[in-house]
Amino acid sequence: MSVYKNNNLVKLCIMGDGGVGKTAVTIQFISNHFVHYYDPTIEDSYRKQCVIDDQVYMLDVLDTAGQDELTAMRDQWIRSCEGFILVYSVTSRSSFDQIAFFKEQIYRVLDSEDVPIMMIGNKSDLENERQVTYQEGKDLARCFGMSFMEVSAKNRSNIEEVFNETVRCVKRREELQNKDKPKDRNDIKKKNSIIKKLNQKVNNTKNSICKMM
């Protein structure tokens, strides 16, 4: 019987413009199967147990809609997940341009820019139809502070790697957050004292600037 701890349950959300292959990427990862037809998704949830870096994880993968008329549902999807995979198609410049929109929506809903996000360019097998270069994708991801890969849902290129790396990003963030948490009341008091002193310095600086004006 497979055993995994509650903290090894990782909830991931797949987001991107309509028709970029979010469902194809998800089903290829879950079932080793390529979906040839396009059927607009509203919301589908999948679960898969996998081993990443010798650790057993249970992944909950939420495949979301890309259609504009369903954007109101995205806030709820975003709040329910820990890590995000933003998908564009290398054959669609407009879907690439939409990545910034999805990123900003995640930041807004979670009220944070410290979010584990993987950006992927799907359909890398359609080289003759390419509208977005690999370097453009890499540069945008670096600008946004995201990890990046090009993938092909059709031939399964980099599919496993995308999900594995996204889980690693989630876990690294958790480790950093736990490391920064105060361990006891004395630590909390010390941290509060430091924050209070910093706030006093900021206020004093502001007052000095106001007097000079």
Automatic annotation (TrEMBL):
SUPFAM superfamilies for the chain: P-loop containing nucleoside triphosphate hydrolases
Enzyme class: hydrolase
Biological process, per Gene Ontology: signal transduction
MF GO annotations: G protein activity; GTP binding
Domain of life: Eukaryota
Location(s), subcellular: Cell membrane
Function: Ras proteins bind GDP/GTP and possess intrinsic GTPase activity.
Protein name: small monomeric GTPase
